[in-house]
Design brief:
Largest sheet: 6 strands, antiparallel
Number of domains: 3
Structural class: alpha+beta
Distance between the termini: 22 Å
Number of helices: 8
Shape: globular
Mean pLDDT: 92
Bound molecules: flavin-adenine dinucleotide
Radius of gyration: 20 Å
Strand content: 25-35%
CATH class of the largest domain: Alpha Beta
CATH topology of the largest domain: Uridine Diphospho-n-acetylenolpyruvylglucosamine Reductase, domain 3
Number of strands: 18
Helix content: 25-40%
Low-confidence stretches: 304-315
Length: about 325
Amino acid sequence: MEIQESVPLAPYTTFRIGGNARWYCAPQTSHEICAALAWARERALPWFALGRGSNLLVADAGYPGLIIHTLGMHSIAWEGAACAALPEQACVVRCGAGCATAVLADEAAGRGLSGLEFAGGLPGSIGGASCMNARAYGSEIADIFIEAEVVTPGGEIMRRTRADMRYAYKHSALMESGEIACSVTLALLCARDEAEREMIRARTEENRTKRVTMGQFRRPSAGCVFKNDYALGIPSGKLIDDAGLKGMRAGCAEVSSEHANFIVNHGDARAADVRELIARIKDIINEKYGVMLEEEITYLGFDSAAPRQDAPHRG
Ligand SMILES: Cc1cc2nc3c(=O)[nH]c(=O)nc-3n(C[C@H](O)[C@H](O)[C@H](O)COP(=O)(O)OP(=O)(O)OC[C@H]3O[C@@H](n4cnc5c(N)ncnc54)[C@H](O)[C@@H]3O)c2cc1C
């Protein structure tokens, strides 16, 4: 596995923002991830697991450590796919962490397997979705997660069950441990008949279409910037919308006029613009409603509010 120097990260993010990775590699196997971590440890470099960059803001100055990009780990293995004759039997799918979640959702729907309909059109990788407990339309990855093969920061290959993951709203144990998921195993349910198969396909497609209709892909973004505060009971996007902040700009970054919890890149936005906008939104919402919004997006390469893996000598 080649370790490259000075690789632009913006093309690997849905925001299309950010500088270069000082070091970059794209492992194909868990053993290559171990080797990458050992390489970083030997040089006392920080490292970061990158999926499909759909929940990420990379600093304009880039990242001084090693990016471990799971993009090439996209195998999908269906087990029990012949179980259509056995109603309600679970089908297990094992996929590489870099596998695109929306592709997996489509393949599952094509096979008449239920459980991933919520992920129709959901950007990102299954590794990222499992790490962040991605959710949509009332379902989340935790609902179907069985286990993951992970590499620990110390370089051990381990299995993590659903209980190990300690799933909560937009949270998993991986966010604290810094372990890298190499593959993820999910449980899906086989359709009992053609009508059910059709319903699974229709729901998956409907969820994708909703995203397109809502304009989610019209401009580069990282999806929702802020988590929702379920205790408060008002979505963060509604707070931002009610405060009249849609369309507020900093440089080429703008609070989306379609979805107030999205910040969009009008072409040339810098990470500094996005950060400025985020700070302004937080101040205004706190002043107006006494609510401190919490970021959902991950920061990479910033001095402050550094992400969990942005520190040398993990493990
Ligand atoms: C238009 C749009 C709509 C979106 N809608 C939703 C939505 O409805 N619901 C939702 O939950 N999210 C949504 N998102 C955010 C994003 O798609 C998901 O959170 C996605 O699951 C992130 O996966 P990723 O591979 O892109 O992760 P990345 O952005 O690459 O990384 C995010 C975090 O996950 C970690 N990570 C990535 N891969 C691994 C791995 N293999 N092992 C360990 N850690 C890893 C990274 O280190 C980082 O901390 C949206 C984003 C966009 C752009």
